[in-house]
Amino acid sequence: MSDQLQAVADKIDAAERILLTCHRGPDGDSVGSLVALASLLKTQGKTVVLYNPDLVPRYLKWLPYGKKFVQQLKKKARFDLTLVVDCGDLKLLGDKFPEPEVTGEVVALDHHGSGRPFGDLFVSDPSVAAVGVMVVQIADLLQWPVTKEAAIGIYVSIVSDTGGFRYANTNSQVLRLAARLVEESGVDPAELGERMSQDSSPGRYRLLSRVLKELQVRVDGKVAFMVISAEMVKECGATWEDTEGLINYARSLRGVHCGVLICPSKYGGVRVSMRARGAEIDAGKVCFELGGGGHKGAAGCTLQGTLEEAQGIVEKALQAFVTAI
User: Fold this and answer.
1) Among residues 229, 197, 194, which one has the least CA distance to residue 214?
2) Which of 26, 28, 252, 321 measures 20 to 30 Å from 60, CA to CA?
């Protein structure tokens, strides 16, 4: 892995114009990693463009460069290098990912346990808790100081993907990195924790109440399903962004090993989000078999059909997985 990261570092060092992007529907790890890279690269005099067809979530817009993302590239845009973070499958970039003459070389940095390699160089390290860890490793290889802006992005990255250091991927490496960001870069955990907290709307709580009322426990009590329709969101006066994090209520139910959230995907089809705890269910393996992927504890996929049909497919896959253990 050190050789692969050195290869990435060399490509970054040699490039002057760099495009930074991630999977559609950016989250804490991807946005945090991208703003960290943007700060590091700009400090070295590089020309950087942050790009994603989707908007940065409201709860992350306060980040450095959080409002600098563009949803469309200029017609004459050309780059020496494109860095894709937190993405293990080309299809997760959507159909608007720019052509090779625009991107230049494509380097992907990922940490999911399952994936489908793409690009000119694909580097995935499932042992790290978040892509933010890899960003620091690359900065260290280049002997670049971690700026305060970069440190904030990295901290958001690792806190997001470890669930505030509560998930199973929390290890000594990520805890040491968090301490380093506090001691050397002046990161304030309390301040960032407050800023990362959901600025909840009344619609979010109405939707949560509705979803919990209709919560379904299946697969011998080991799986809890939340199904959210477009009508439910509208009736509750909520937005799709208000669904962020609701799956954790299903995951935390006593006796449940895996929480599943099923809702329409804005890209078409049905979006399935899965959060597992303990060792019995590997969400990443289950979703990979369904055409998606992710981590053991957090994964997702997109299915076709109705919400009810998608739930049936997921339930069958989880039942088969549990039975096979």
Assistant:
1) 229
2) 252
For β-strands 258-264 and 270-276, DSSP reports them as: antiparallel
Q: Over the stretch 244-300, which tens digit does the pLDDT of each residue have?
A: 889 999 999 999 999 999 999 988 999 999 999 988 999 999 999 999 988 888 899
The answer to whether 236 touches 203, Cβ cutoff 8 Å, is yes
- For the purposes of burial, counting CB atoms within 10 Å of the CB of 183, is it exposed (0-12), middle (13-18) or buried (19 or more)? exposed
Closest C-alpha to 64, from 157, 189, 179:
157
Dihedral sign for Cα 43, 44, 45, 48, please: negative
Secondary structure class of 292 (helix, strand, coil): coil
User: Is the CB of residue 197 less than 8 Å from the CB of residue 159?
Assistant: no
Q: Which helix (H) or strand (E) holds 39?
A: helix 28-43
Q: What's the pTM value of the predicted model, to 2 decimals?
A: 0.90
Alpha-carbon gap, residue 22 to 2, rounded angstroms:
22
- Answer yes or no: are the C-beta atoms of 37 and 170 closer than 8 Å: no
Distances (CA, A) of 287 to 268, 273, 301: 18, 9, 6
> Inter-axis angle of helices 148-161 and 131-141, to 10 degrees?
150
